[in-house]
Amino acid sequence: MKCTPKSEVYTRISNFQRELQDKNIDGAIVLLNSDMFYFTGTVQKSFLYMPCDGEPILMVKRSMRRALDESPLKNIVPIKSPRQIPQVLSDFGYDSIKKIGLELDVLPFNIYTIYKNMFPDAKFYDVSPLIRGIRAIKSLYEIQLLQNAVSIIGESFLQVPSFLREGMSEMELAALFEAEMRKRGYSGFCRTRAFNQEFFYGNVCTGESGFYPSFFDGPVGGSGPSVSHSQGAGWKRVNKNEVVYIDYTCVIEGYAGDQTRVFCMGQLTPKMVKAFDDAVLIESEVAKSIKPGTLAEEPYFLALKMAEEMGYKDNFMGYKEDRVKFLGHGIGLELDEWPVLAKGFKSPIMPGMTFAMEPKFVFPEGCIGTENSFVMTETGLKNMATIPEVITYLDK
Amino acid sequence: MKCTPKSEVYTRISNFQRELQDKNIDGAIVLLNSDMFYFTGTVQKSFLYMPCDGEPILMVKRSMRRALDESPLKNIVPIKSPRQIPQVLSDFGYDSIKKIGLELDVLPFNIYTIYKNMFPDAKFYDVSPLIRGIRAIKSLYEIQLLQNAVSIIGESFLQVPSFLREGMSEMELAALFEAEMRKRGYSGFCRTRAFNQEFFYGNVCTGESGFYPSFFDGPVGGSGPSVSHSQGAGWKRVNKNEVVYIDYTCVIEGYAGDQTRVFCMGQLTPKMVKAFDDAVLIESEVAKSIKPGTLAEEPYFLALKMAEEMGYKDNFMGYKEDRVKFLGHGIGLELDEWPVLAKGFKSPIMPGMTFAMEPKFVFPEGCIGTENSFVMTETGLKNMATIPEVITYLDK
């Protein structure tokens, strides 16, 4: 299996250690699978100690066999229980750690308590902002992986005309579209960081389904198949002359691309066609406006201003009270990475950052819009899409 | 959309309130989607206050429209930010709550801190064991939903002979099997409660893939498609005369059934055939031994004893150091519910409990075994399977 290059992993480690030194933290205990993968190249039931200086220690409960196969780290040791962590650290010479970093944005309170009791004299610090900040800047290696994911979602979109048909349920359409990506390597769960931010593949909405909101932090909801999973594809049948809206992630080798395309069997109303064109116009104008150093909230404000001037005040990024207040979100190992293109995010967009932008409109008769995955380069924003950004009309 | 009956929701609420009173807790703030769904019938971006007595209050950030459609609760009110919770509770007359329950097994430390600051004079208690205990006993309504999920996984298994073929990748087989369940209503993400317990649909392993362990807390790993998602189906091609092992969940209307079936194009070795028969024998003997009141660890001990006597000491529930120490797990709205059939779980198995049992063996040449979903009744354990428990041989 393809492993993360050693130089890649150790560069990430250096970046993190520099931040730990800056913050005067002795070391961090990293636990979350996505962060674990980023810093070790493997996802095991394991515990990573990242000293502010020197070799990290990967303590593995299960599976050692696999950790040794996959991770380029020098220190990989077996452990039976997290209770042994202080002893292992002491064996490696780390026996006076007093300032410990943890991922306090995701670590459940009860697990935090275990570590607090394990190191009774230590102070704990939330290192998740440091990790998220480092992870927001992608290496060339990561950008290539992300480009591959975006290419595969493109290939999958090109298959839609072969199976979309009148009368099929949104669920059946979702099943077939998901299978196209899955057989091309869709990794499985798309990782998200926020608590309760449940997510599965993406969203198929047809016609008025697009008007149905959900708890998910996106512009479009969808009925979902049941009240227990109330987002995305539902049981509505696909009709002619309505929007078939497909907004999906594609997770390949861990990296999530995100794209939306629109299909129609027949004709859309002039209103919906214009709304699509306006969404594409907003996207392209906003993309042109983004330079290295642009603050992450600025694209949102520009898109909002354009949408309101176009007459979409109640429709932009959701309908009326269900509108969400962002234009895009960082993508990578998680779907909710930094930067977030939203009010209040005043950090600059820097080369190496990757994010999806998704100007969309919701009307009582349905939703429409566009979405692509972008990478910030030294010279400007690059759209990673491999397929055209058009409504695909099918004559069937 | 089908909603949870009002009587069902209010029975659950009464059960929880009785526990809160027993523990002398003023009320609980429920946040996790699965618990939220259980007590309200809806999953929104929302905050549920469950007083130890009286009407609960569902405070909804997004979407009110949908909460009102789906939940039978009397008090559903909009809220802009969790910061308003103390004011809303005060408006409803709850202004001196001092002992507050939270789901501290899942609540991230940073979110816990928000609540601690919001109620500076309160003491906090972990109510997750109370909730998990209540949820472990299913109502007839829930058992019917679970039976439906198990029936749909059965239907999907019956489709396998139509698409399983030599030379296809495990990923393609997974894609097609998943699509069968998805178009029949697979809800999307299968909820799990444990931190980092990532999971996607299930596991396809063929031949020696079944020997590859993973971090996932199950007997069989699988290579997975990449090191970032290192469990389940991978890129190995399916051969003749080897085990095609399919262990999948089926989540319908929120409830997860869990089942494993084995296929083969050609012939298996006598060793593998015997191991399958032995797994089925263990399952049936253990099932017969379980009565209302049996402690949850006893079935594991019996299965382990039988497996060891049969000569599978190094193979039962994993290979050597990668063996897991359980026989089964509770199923319902989450895949890791109570009871857990594992050493140390000394609570009794009671009527209404539902769980999967999965005696399995792992050898260097692959894995084999069985799994079914069961419900405990007043008179004995009932296997919910709708399809036979045999190796399905295909002549192609």
Concise account of the structure shown:
Chain A is an alpha+beta fold. Helices cover 32% and strands 22% of the residues of chain A. In chain A, the strands form four sheets. A six-stranded mixed β-sheet of chain A has the order 4-3-2-1-5-6, with helices on both faces. The first copy, chain A, has a five-stranded antiparallel β-sheet with strand order 11-10-12-15-16.
The dominant shape of chain A is elongated
- Rg of chain A, Å, rounded: 23 Å
Biggest interface reads: A-B, 79 and 79 residues
Q: Give the number of helices of chain A.
A: 10
Helicity level of chain A, as a percent range? 25-40%
Instruction: Could you tell me the CATH topology label of the largest domain in chain A.
Output: Creatine Amidinohydrolase
Total domains of chain A: 2
Distance between the termini of chain A: 42 Å
Protein structure class of chain A: alpha+beta
Strand % of chain A is: 15-25%
Supply the CATH architecture of the largest domain in chain A.
Alpha-Beta Complex
CATH class of the largest domain in chain A: Alpha Beta
What does this structure look like?
- The structure is a homodimer of 396-residue chains.
- The first copy, chain A, is α+β, with helices and mostly antiparallel strands and 396 residues long.
- In chain A, 32% of the residues lie in helices and 22% in strands.
- Chain A folds into two domains: 130 residues, Creatinase/prolidase N-terminal domain (Creatine Amidinohydrolase, Chain A, domain 1); 258 residues, Creatinase/methionine aminopeptidase superfamily (Creatine Amidinohydrolase).
- Chain A has ten helices and 17 strands.
- The relative contact order of chain A is 0.12.
- Chains A, B: One of its GO terms (molecular function) is proline dipeptidase activity.
